[in-house]
Amino acid sequence: MANRHLHLIIRAETRNTPSDPNWVHGWLTQMVTDIGMKILQGPITTYLDVPGNRGVTGVVIIETSHIALHVWDESDPGLLQLDVYTCSDLDPNVVLDKIREFDPVKLEYKYLDRETCLTEIPV
């Protein structure tokens, strides 16, 4: 395993915005498999039902760091924020392909090498 510090940060406005924490639990579990990582704990998912801040949050601790997903489903389109951080290799295209399940109308991301500074990596 490489000793890296890679961080993929995604912001997506979505039409198919998830609102079921059980579904997000399965999605995060599959994400870990798809990127070739191993789960240490979780996923932990919950739905917050507070006006103005409604949505699902899910986190999973992986062998090489973590994945965190935050979703707000009140607006149309919905908003999804995802962080994938690893000290191993990561193919960002696998993660970006999984985000397409949410039918994004806007998709922005940064892929960073955080080994010694915040260096943006082209995808």
Describe it for me?
- The protein is α+β, with helices and mostly antiparallel strands.
- The chain has a single domain (6-118), classed as S-adenosylmethionine decarboxylase, CATH 3.60.90.10.
- It has helices at residues 21-34, 92-99, and strands spanning 6-14, 39-48, 55-62, 65-72, 78-86, 104-113, 119-120.
- The protein has a seven-stranded antiparallel sheet with strand order 2-3-4-5-1-6-7, covered by helices on one side.
- Strand 4 and strand 5 form a beta hairpin.
- The longest helix is centred in the first third of the chain and has 14 residues, at 21-34.
Descriptors:
123 residues; alpha+beta; S-adenosylmethionine decarboxylase; 7-stranded antiparallel sheet; 2 helices; 46% strand
Based on secondary structure, the structural category is: alpha+beta
CATH topology: S-adenosylmethionine decarboxylase
Euclidean distance between termini CA atoms: 21 Å
Which parts are unreliable, with pLDDT below 50 for 5 consecutive residues or more?
none
Please give a quick description of this structure.
The chain contains 2 helices and 7 strands. The chain is an alpha+beta fold and 123 residues long.
Element layout with pairings:
Elements: E1 6-14, H1 21-34, E2 39-48, E3 55-62, E4 65-72, E5 78-86, H2 92-99, E6 104-113, E7 119-120
Antiparallel strand pairs: 1-5, 1-6, 2-3, 3-4, 4-5, 6-7
